[in-house]
Amino acid sequence: MMDITTLSLLHNIFQEVQGKQDWKTALDTLFGSLRGSFVFDNVAIYLLDPQTKGLEVVYARAKGRGKKAEADAAWGSSTAIDVLASGETILHLPSQETKGTDRVAQAYLLGIPLNIGSKLSGALVFVRFGGPEFSDLQIQIGSLQAFWSAALIERRDLQEARTELDSVQRQMRFQEDVVSTISHELRTPLGFIKGYATSLLRQDTIWDETTQREFLNIIDEEADQLTRLIENMLESSRLQSKTLQFKFTQVRMDALVRDVATRVNSRYPELKITFDVQPLPPIQGDGFRLSQVFENLFSNAIKYAPDSEINISMRISDGRIRITFADNGKGIPEDYLPFIFERFYRVPGERTVSGTGLGLYICRQIVLAHHGNIWVESALNKGTTFYLELSITPQL
Ligand code: ADP
To answer: In angstroms, rounded to a whole number, what is the distance separating the alpha carbons of residues 6 and 144?
Structure first.
C-alpha cells in the first residue's frame, strides 16, 4: 500500500507537470521533480521517425556528471536501439575495461520502451556515470516516467494535429467564402443582363424607345461590371505570378491623381474631393497601373464611406513622394487591418456591399512593383487613411 504522503507528493507532481503547456517544459518538470528519489546524470528520449525509420533525439537533458553530453545524446543511442529491437527494458553496465578509469567513462544505462498510442515508438534512456546500478525500485520509477513521457508526447502530437486541422479548416472556409463571393459577384450582373434582355425580347410587350434605351444602358453597364471583375481576377493572378507587364515612363503623380478624380467626379458629381499638393517632380512609373490604384481607392471610399469627403495630400519626404488618401467614414476595425491587402480578403460583415477582396491586393502589388509602399490607418467612426510612398529616383 502506498502511504498518503507519497500519494499526495505524486498528486502535486502530476498537477505541476500537466499544468505546463509546452511538452518539453512538462518533461523538465517531470524529471526534475522525481530526481530526489531517482538520481541520474543525463536523460534522453529517442523516437522512431516514421518516414526515415531512423532514431531521432527529441529531448535531452544533462543534470549531473558529463554535462557536455546534453547536445550530443549519442551516449544512449545503442541502448535505445536495443530497447526498440527487444521491446523491453534494458540495463547496460560499463564494460570491464572501463573499471577503475574516469567515472564519466563508466556508463550505467537504463533504457525503457516508450509506447505511444499502444505502439512501440521510441525509448527513454537514463545514464549514471560511475554508478551505482539502477535498483529494481528505481527501474519502476523510471517506467513510470516513461509512461508519463509517452503521454506527454502523445498530447504534443494531438495538439499539433489539432493546430494543423484548424488551419486546414480555416483554409477550407476561406476557399468556400471566395467561391461564394465570386459566384455572387458574377451572378448579380448576369441576372440583370438576362432579365433586361428577356424583357426586351418579349413579343407580347412593346417598349417605347426611352425604356428600350434605359434597359440597354443597364445591360451595357452590367456587362462592363462583368468585364471589370474578370479583368481584376486575371490581373490579380498575373500579379501573384509576377507575369504582369509594366510600362514605365515619366509620370506626374499630381496630374495623374487629379485625372482619376475628374473621371470619378463625372460619375459621382456630389462626391467632394479636396487636394493639398506640394509641387512634385515626375517619377518613373506605369501611369495606367498607378491610375488603377487610385480608382480602387476611390471606389472603396464610395462603397465603404458613402457621403464622406475625400482628402488627398501629396508631399515630398526623404526623397519619396508621400500621398495620403483619407475619408471620414466608418473605419475598419483594428483586428482586420493586417489582412485587408491580402488577396480575396473582405472584412467580415461587408456582404451587403459588392466586392471580391481583390482591389487592395491589386493596389499593393502595383505599388510594390514600383518599389513603393502602401499601408493603412483607420479609426472606427472617424475614417480611414491610405498612405502611399513612391520613390522619386528610379529604382528599376
Ligand atoms: P472589396 O472592396 O472588393 O471587398 P478590397 O480589397 O478593395 O476588396 O478591400 C478589402 C476590404 O477593406 C473591404 O472588404 C472593406 O471592408 C475594407 N475597406 C477598404 N477600403 C475601405 C474604406 N475606405 N473604408 C472602410 N473599409 C474599407
So the answer is: 14
